[in-house]
Amino acid sequence: MNPSTAFRQILLTESLRHPTESSSSSSSSDDDEPKPEPTPTLLDPSKTLAMSLSRIGTPTQRLVSGTLLELAELSEEDYGGPLHSIVIVGKRLHPLELEYAGRFAVGGEAGNWWKVGKEVYGVERETF
C-alpha cells in the first residue's frame, strides 16, 4: 500500500474515544438517569500530526512529517519507497519530538507542523 493511500484510509476510518469512567464502577447510585455513552471523535486531519517512515535503517531512509491532511495529499514519490511505519502523534508531544520531526516537515518552516504543534499540542519551538 502506498503511503498516500494509507493516510487517506486513516482519515476515513480512524476514530478515538474520549476517556470515560471505568465501566466497573458501582451500578448502584442515587441518580436514576443513565450515564451518557461516550461519543467517538474523528481525528481532525488538519490538526493531527503524524510521520511517515520509509526504508528505516538503510542509507536511503526517508522521514516525512506533517498533518494527516498534508501527508494524505503527497504523492508516492514524496515518500520515497516502501512505507515502513506511520506514527500518529497522540495527545502529548515533547518539545524534542516537535523539533526532531520538524526537520522533515512538509512545507518546511512554512508548513503546518509548527503551527499545529503550538496551537493544538501546546508545544513551543525550542531555541538553542
TrEMBL record:
GO BP: any one term: protein histidyl modification to diphthamide
Gene3D superfamilies: Methyltransferase, Cobalt-precorrin-4 Transmethylase, Domain 2
Location of the region described as Disordered in the Swiss-Prot/TrEMBL record: 13-47
InterPro entries in UniProt: 4pyrrol_Methylase_sf (IPR035996), 4pyrrole_Mease_sub2 (IPR014776), Dphthn_synthase (IPR004551)
GO molecular function, one term: methyltransferase activity
Name of the molecule in the record: Diphthine synthase
Source organism per UniProt: Kwoniella shandongensis
Taxonomic lineage of the native organism: Eukaryota, Fungi, Dikarya, Basidiomycota, Agaricomycotina
